[in-house]
Amino acid sequence: MRHPFFKNLALRFLILTLPVVLFIQACETQANEPKATIAAAAPNPAVPADGYIVQPTAFSEAIEITGTLVANQEVTIASELTRKVVHVQVKEGNFVTAGTLLFQLDDADLQAQLERLRQQEKLAALNEARFKDLIAHDAAIQQDYDQAITNLNVLKAEIRALAVTIDKTRIRAPFNGRIGIVRVYPGALVSPNTVLTNIVDDTRIKVEFSVPEKYANLVTIGKTQQFTVQSDTAAYAATVVAKESRMNEQTRTLLVEAIGPNPKGRLVPGQSARLNLALHTSNDALKVPSQALMPSSQGYAVYVAKNNKVQLTPVTIGQRGAQEVQILNGLNQGDTVITSNLLRLVPGADVALVKVK
Q1: Cys-Cys crosslink for 71: which of 84, 269, 286, 353, Cβ 3.0 to 4.6 Å?
Q2: What stretches of the chain adopt beta strand conformation (E)?
């Protein structure tokens, strides 16, 4: 059995240590409470982002279309007769003027026929003159004179027809142009299906391209279009001169033809051409960078910074460019559109604009 002295000693120790324990617990509680309160009261940090101030500016819409270069004039040279080639008067690559003799076909038999008809014409002319004199002296009847004059006229018509055939044996350049590859040589027998060569007028060049039906009415006659080719980096210009009379039903495109100069003959018919087709131009359009635009099920929207707060603003878009989009409704001049860090933004969040254009 414990002595009373020890009981009193334990009770005194408990009484003395209890306030210390309670004081320590109270201090710990007070130390934790400010941290939780500070953590709960601390605001979310502002999201850094770039901005773009909306201002009226010039804006043009263009689409890229692939076309084909076509010579101003180009024909395949062929014979209209089945005859032998006796002379080739031209060389590949030469530039010739209209009317230059290119090929001579054999016409010996035709020349013989022509000489025979001319002799008959002389005799018919003498008969016509004789009967005309006899009619004047009432020594012949009108029927005899009519027969003589008819024979003379028939012979003249045959001579003209034969002269046309003989002229076809002399194949000439139909216009000024450059000769292609010569495909026949003296001694070759040619027919109307035989290609002799081709001639190209490439002093000017045509560009043929097809425009989607959406933009068919925007390409007008007289409008200048720019194009490039793969053979060099120069930019060329061509003026629209013609449009097809109807739309292609399979592709729903309209064929357009433009023509322009061919400096130093650098452009070759058959090359592909790349056109930047200018469609719309506006001098006071509101535009934003393409990356600022956010599609949704209701349309498009952008984040706008107002008083360092994020505001989601629905917009109506118009023309699209390579890097910019025209805004028709939803924005005003001077609005600051956020263009970066969009995935971290929510409406009402704080935003810190790092760089503003």
Answers
A1: 269
A2: 47-53, 56-78, 83-88, 95-96, 101-105, 170-172, 177-179, 189-190, 195-212, 224-228, 236-243, 253-261, 272-289, 294-296, 299-306, 309-320, 324-329, 336-338, 351-356
